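Hey, resending since the last one bounced:
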Amino acid sequence: MNGIASEAARRERGTGPGPAEYRPPSVRYCGIDEAGRGPLAGPVFAAAVILDPANPIEGLRDSKKIGPNRRDQLFVMILNQSLACSIAQASVAEIDELNVLQATLLAMRRAVELLPIPPLLALVDGNKAPVLRCETRTLVRGDGLDPAISAASILAKVARDRDMLELHRAYPDYGFDAHKGYPTALHLERLRRFGPSAVHRQSFGPVREAAIMAGCRAVSKAPHD
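The structure tokens again:
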């Protein structure tokens, strides 16, 4: 297989260049990533980061592969050492109205529009990108390849985790502090027991099922003539 065919096959499989092969763009660009597409509750977050080549940040990598304490440290470093960065979100109502993919792309667009320095290029983790005013490229598994995307993944992850802790204080029955809204066994058990809260994504299957169960229980407990 020649080089062109090999590259085409790799793209078809949904894989990209390895760490040794990847080279960041040579123009001023922002990395973009999201956090919170999979959970059953809470907003979806996105971040955009333009790193400063003169002030590098050591230890940037996929946020899922970093412990909470180190993520918090890197969060502060990214805010202080990047040329520009921003964090945005799309609400639960927007997720239910648009679907979670479109809401995620909306949050990404908002994050880029909030940057105080306009990028010449936006490099987006994954294979879907928002419509932006600048050139846009996608990079599958980019949070493990590109440092700016890694930085964006850290900002989005930390911001969303902190938001879920605030939601836990408002809705302590659901255990948001433990699972951050993801469909764990604990979350599903609490959802079935208490029914959906105002911050649950009503368009998601497990939430709809819990709402139906809660409605059935309410009917069965209602007084009958």
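The chain has a mean pLDDT of 90.

Sorry for the duplicate.
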